[in-house]
Amino acid sequence: MDAGTGKQGPDVEGRIRVLHLIHTLERGGAEQILVSWFKSGGSEQFAYEVCCLFRGGPHEATITKAGIPVHIAGMRNPLDLAGLRRAARIIKQAQPDIIHTQLRYADLVGPLLARWTGCRHVLSTIQNTADHYFEPGLAIGRAEALLYKWGSKLFPRNYVACSEAVAKDIERHMGNKVPVWVVSNAVDCDRLIAEIKHDPQQVRSQLGLPDDAVVYISVGRLEYQKGHSDLLQAFAQVKAHSPRAVLLLAGEGSLRSQLEAQADELGLEESVIFLGERSDVPELVNASDVVVCSSLYEGLPVAIAEAMALGAPVLATRVGGVPQLIEAEVRGIVVEPGQVDALAAQMQRLYDDEPLRKRLGEAAKKFIREHFDISLMIQGYEDVYRQMLE
Asked: Are 252 and 222 in contact (CB under 8 A)?
């Protein structure tokens, strides 16, 4: 939908209006959560709209099809004041009771847009460890970190943390006087199962994989956060002893060419497949033997939860909310981030032990359905909305 053209329908009258403010609807964890949320529905007490600050993306059509209005402010860059004014017009027309921001830039400008448009309530979901927002480092520069910290104090808002670990981080940076709820990220278990249309062997054949290959897959943006360089080094150790090993990397990002060069240097050009962005991730996971997450920091990674919901054995680094998902040796295996040798050792262990893979996958699937289904997350957020308006 073009900027400023969306209008609320007559059925919105009397319902709590929530506008989700997000950068884009490209493929990513926060964006996927919105897709799962809107496809699953929610309480009839709420009416939702989405405003993308920069552009839409592949998820836009899916959300629109679910009956949720999507508006595009069309900002060209973060300093595009004309784009911010377009966003303000969209918000003013929607007249939300709550602006719910997702991701750093939206968190930063959301309270400002709320003041411009007269919206009294802002909720920001923190989708990563708070250091990713408040501390300069490889993720963000010093100026951006200071701006976020300054903006958070100048324009107070409510926070939702996507995991207990993230909640503790927010309180460490902002103090315990800032309202923080915990609503864990979740997945639509039924949707994931329904998206599997092909037999695993068919998928493997389409990818040109040998019938006897032991397939590892990593799903995520090819960015520093995801630790792919460590994963390639670890996989090189596995490949030296296990010739049937194959590694799939599903995702796109700024480090792709650098990671491809690293794979070539390690002699892995024939056994590491860069798949790029994929819309069939559930089928790829279902056709793989082990899911690996080598992240250096996370909030509560949706890719891991989705893999577990599909019954895949997961090996992940112990970051952010990962321990909420994976009880070590029960629902998966965890190693410390940045420990290449430990990661390689556990990858080799899973290569060698098929019964272990099966046991971990079955336990993971049962746990996610009982504790991290999307319906529980929607209920959690709608409870927060009600409390904010009391």
From this structure: yes
Chain centre to alpha carbon of residue 304: 9
Cβ neighbours of residue 280 under 8 Å, at least 6 residues apart? 195, 203
Q: Quote the CA–CA distance of 104 and 144 in Å, as a whole number.
A: 10
Beta-carbon contacts of residue 292 (< 8 Å; ≥ 6 apart): 216, 217, 218, 231, 314, 315, 316, 343, 347
Q: Which of 160, 169, 165 lies closest to 387, judged by CA?
A: 160
Domain boundaries 10-186+373-389, corresponding CATH code: 3.40.50.2000
pLDDT for res 14: 81
* Burial class of residue 10, CB neighbours in 10 A (0-12, 13-18, 19+): exposed
Distance, CA of 117 to CA of 124 (rounded, Å): 17
Give the burial class of 338: count Cβ atoms within 10 A of its Cβ; 0-12 exposed, 13-18 middle, 19 or more buried: middle
pLDDT per residue as tens digits for the range 137-191: 555 556 666 666 666 666 668 899 999 888 888 888 777 677 899 999 999 999 9
At residue 45, the 3 state secondary structure works out as: coil
Q: Of 144-153, 254-263, 264-273, give the lowest mean pLDDT range.
A: 144-153
Domain coordinates in residue numbering, the chain: 10-186+373-389, 189-371
Nearest to 113 by CA among 44, 201, 21, 241: 21
Residues 290 and 347: beta-carbon distance below 8 Å: yes
Say yes or no to pLDDT of 244 above 80.
Answer: yes
CATH code at 189-371: 3.40.50.2000
248 — phi, psi (to 5°)? -105, 135
Rg of the Cα atoms in the chain: 21
Mean pLDDT of 11-20: 82
- Entry pTM: 0.85
